[in-house]
Amino acid sequence: MKTFKLFGAAVLGIVLLIVFVIFSCSSRDKKSFSEIQWKQKVEDTRVEDLYAPHFKEGRFYTPWMEMGDKSFLDVLGWKLFSKTHYTSEETDFLPRVTPDTAERLDQVRGDFILWIGHNTFLIRIDKVYWITDPVFSKRALLPARLTPPALSLKELNEIVKDLNILISHNHYDHLDRSTMKQLPRDAAVFVPRGLKTYVMGMDKTNVRELDWWEAVDTGKGSTLICLPAQHWSMRIGQGRNRSLWAAWLLKTPKATLYFGGDSGYFKGFREIGRKYPDIDYAFMPITAYHPRWFMQYQHMNIPEAVKAFEDLGARFFIPTQWGTFHLGSEPAGFPGLDLIRHIRKNNLDLFRFNIMDVGQILPLN
């Protein structure tokens, strides 16, 4: 009888704990989040902190606004109880996939931008090839691809002999071990601080590590600059914020390209636009921004991404990271549709927004 009572008390305790967790998590959905307050919080940050030290006690951080740790209940609240209704159009919308990319690429003689998928773009400028955050695997750790890469790794390696690789940070949808190990061993790889040794372990011999605002001459009159972003890092075997996250600016005699990586909205976009005017193409992240109460620090929604683009003063907007992996609460293709609606609603110049198909080859003007 005593054992039965103890068992009953234990069961009751577990039930009460589950009820408490459910109540706590459900209350976190849309919990006291205000877009107005968030905008004010951004405005209250200081531009000079963009240049401040950002490493202490073995971890990197954003000195203008630290992220703070999400609790287990926050994560559980997002995953289990953050519900948003999406229409069938919003659920089903995905980028078109243009076939026969390798054959079409073989006919291109000039400079171009090719969207391979997610944040993976192949760029050729003055016969020099660059690839951003190459991910060709079927999964980004757990999420599966909903659209295939425009090229296979075999096709890429046959087409490109001398390759430059840009890595924005260590999250699995941006740094894929399987892909990296299959790219040329002597490819030039540029990574943020804290990632050099890790990436060299992916069978890479030519890895250059840069800090925010640091620049490197890449030849032919071109310069690559590592820039701040508002994000974070973590990976199995690499603790939270043990390596830096970054955006990149590639200045060439023909064009200047900004690669945003992953970032929430912050004053850095204005400062980058001021410091480096005449950006031609801005590759802007639009992914995983629902729910806002959970995502607003590290990911921009569509209005913020467009504002960041305007802050940069760039000529053309290229949306990235939509339509491949389901990462936020919103469907994978939803950000692309959301951007189209935003452009129409606000009568923006559609010519400045290059919403590419997977496999589309965009000539560099």
Automatic annotation (TrEMBL):
<keyword id="KW-0472">Membrane</keyword>
<dbReference type="InterPro" id="IPR036866">
    <property type="entry name" value="RibonucZ/Hydroxyglut_hydro"/>
</dbReference>
<feature type="domain" description="Metallo-beta-lactamase">
    <location>
        <begin position="131"/>
        <end position="320"/>
    </location>
</feature>
<dbReference type="GO" id="GO:0016787">
    <property type="term" value="F:hydrolase activity"/>
</dbReference>
<dbReference type="Pfam" id="PF12706">
    <property type="entry name" value="Lactamase_B_2"/>
</dbReference>
<keyword id="KW-0378">Hydrolase</keyword>
<protein>
    <submittedName>
        <fullName>Uncharacterized protein related to metal-dependent hydrolase/oxidoreductase</fullName>
    </submittedName>
</protein>
<keyword id="KW-1133">Transmembrane helix</keyword>
<keyword id="KW-0812">Transmembrane</keyword>
<dbReference type="GO" id="GO:0005737">
    <property type="term" value="C:cytoplasm"/>
</dbReference>
<feature type="transmembrane region" description="Helical">
    <location>
        <begin position="6"/>
        <end position="25"/>
    </location>
</feature>
<dbReference type="InterPro" id="IPR001279">
    <property type="entry name" value="Metallo-B-lactamas"/>
</dbReference>
